[in-house]
Amino acid sequence: MTESGSPIVSSETNALRCIDRKTFRFATFGNHACAILMTMCVLFAGSGCHRPSYQTSRIEAKNQWNQVRARIKQQLAQQQFDQGLFQDAIANATAALALSPTLVKCYVLIAFSHLELGQSASAEAAINRAGSLGLEHSDLHYIRAVLLEQRGDVRSAVKEFARARELDKTRIEYLLAHAECLATLGRYAKALTLLAESLNTFDDSYEVATLAARVAELKGDRQLAIEYDSIALARGSSDPLVSQSLGLDLAMEGRCRQAIETLSPLLDGESMSKIAQGAVRRSLAGCLLKTGQPRKAFEIISGYSTEHPQDDAAAALHAAALWKIGEAEKALRALPEHVGPGSATADLLCLRGDILSDLGREKEASEAFSRALADNPGHFRASQTPGRASP
Fold it and tell me: What does the H/E/C string look like for 101-119?
């Protein structure tokens, strides 16, 4: 929850979201406390040779000691942040800044901790304090972009994500967030260009290719989506949703054998709870029918169709599989009884006509084809003279 009581926007509401803006961990920074103390000892040991005035020496020693204390508190704050102790991290980072106000990474820690706690206003205040001192850090721009995105100001967020990337091009989360915001604005070509340019920079990661595939789908470029999903899988993605997207796109492109190879493993083991069962089973059954494997299609779709009687597309595939394995009577009963208007109506009526024709009920078959033609005058199958079909 935010300080005002409104919930932070969840990453789950964004279909493109590949990372959780709020909870990613940034690299641990700072030297070990022991190294800092050793450095301090060397500094103090050397200062005796110059014999400064007593007062000056005390001031310098105090400043040096404050720097050491500040960095130790910064390191402790980092460790507490990594452990999820965000209030403690804020306290120690604030104490470090009291000793050394220009430790920019303490402002980063404070801002991130407030963000984790849902305290957006406090996170923004920490960023503004750093800015008032002329301090700049890529993470500060990243956090500001996250806050802007949460408020719905995506255009401004794009600019902040871009600035974060200018300061540090090695951070993949900056790239993904930048591209996601561009896609949210409908700037698909720009997002794809950005991801393509960085594909080899992050060649040990599949996240860039995965996001590029989703943006390509939004752009309507299914072939490009297939290419990027294939790259993601080649780079080691084990996400069943990547395989699902690739398999469904392959099926829609008519590349049935590749679709079968990609989708079949998803129906085994843990993947079943993560995928869209209906879409996968319908695409897989359709491809199996097209490649002359009706019995396998029946095994894939029959149970699902029975459990989901409202899914007319699954019922049609179930009926087609039954018909193709020689069970025409059962196939006729499996077809949806009431076919409403829609793009699939003519296809269903033609299937009914084929099954009726196979049962020798030619008059009823002819009526089914006539209804299909009335529903869709341009339907090729409905315009043909219905003859006896064989399974």
Answer: CCCHHHHHHHHHHHHHCCC
